[in-house]
Amino acid sequence: MSPYPRRALTASPTPQAQAAARTLRDTAEWVSEDEADVLVALGGDGFMLQTLHRLLDRPGDPLPVFGMNLGTVGFLMNEWRVDGLDARLAEAKTFKVSPLSMSAETMTGARHLLPAINEVSLLRETRETAKIEVTLNERVVIPELVCDGILAATPAGSTAYNRSANGPILPLGSALIALTPISPFRPRRWRGAILPDKARISLRILEPDKRPVSAVADQHEVRDVAVVDVAIDRSRELSLLFDPAHALDDRITMEQFAV
């Protein structure tokens, strides 16, 4: 018997994902998300992140998600196939992911609390370099980081923007956070840090009037921030399902050998 007898289907608005959804709907019975045991998502990594954020906002425990790639990279997705969904769901490997929580205070005093599944990134808004004070567990570790920005990435997000910024790839389940500077100018030799996922990170913007900075939690931006606090949100957990031959931990490992 399938571990997920009641399935819901969601798809990206792109033509290829919508066409795949029409094909898949003809092969099985589907229910609404409120009635489902699992959610099948068709699209790319961006659509998967949107779907996961939407599930975080719903009451109750988020549905496990089995994604199939109808996008470009599809790092968080399985291969798109019409046939064999029953067997794939029965054999799927489950990975638990806890999001980061970003608490951002703007220069006007407004506060924003947002989750981030991949990363929280701070980016300069003008041609002026950003100046950021970095605090770890209430201890100032870098009084002034001069840079284009800085990001904190989860293991699931360590192969995304973090990798493009020359940050480390973190194995899934490693209980680590990557703290990676973006184009650092000073201190010249600092290339980032690998932190335990219990770490509490605070980033204070220096000279915010002259050097404004925005904060982005995955795809959600807050402009003109003054202070940003980042930590793992252990109260919420997401479940991603993967084919055994294409499991996320293996993908993350193999990314370290990509050339």
Structure report:
The chain has 259 residues and is an alpha+beta fold. It contains 5 helices and 17 strands. The chain has helices spanning 15-25, 45-57, 85-91, 161-164, 248-255, and strands at residues 7-11, 38-43, 65-69, 93-97, 100-106, 111-116, 119-124, 130-136, 139-147, 149-153, 176-182, 193-196, 201-206, 213-217, 220-222, 225-232, 238-242. The N and C termini lie far apart (42 Å).
Write the topology of this structure.
Blueprint: E1 7-11, H1 15-25, E2 38-43, H2 45-57, E3 65-69, H3 85-91, E4 93-97, E5 100-106, E6 111-116, E7 119-124, E8 130-136, E9 139-147, E10 149-153, H4 161-164, E11 176-182, E12 193-196, E13 201-206, E14 213-217, E15 220-222, E16 225-232, E17 238-242, H5 248-255
Parallel strand pairs: 1-2, 2-3, 3-17
Antiparallel strand pairs: 4-17, 5-6, 5-16, 7-10, 7-14, 8-9, 8-13, 10-11, 11-12, 13-16, 14-15
User: In total, how many beta strands?
Assistant: 17
User: Which residues form runs of ≥5 with pLDDT under 50?
Assistant: none
In round numbers, the mean pLDDT is 92
Radius of gyration: 20 Å
Number of helices: 5
SSE pattern, N- to C-terminal:
EHEHEHEEEEEEEHEEEEEEEH
The biggest beta sheet is recorded as:
6 strands, antiparallel
Percent in helix: 10-25%
Strand content: 35-45%
List the strand order in the largest sheet: 6-5-16-13-8-9
Envelope shape: elongated
What would you call the structural class? alpha+beta
Distance between the termini: 42 Å
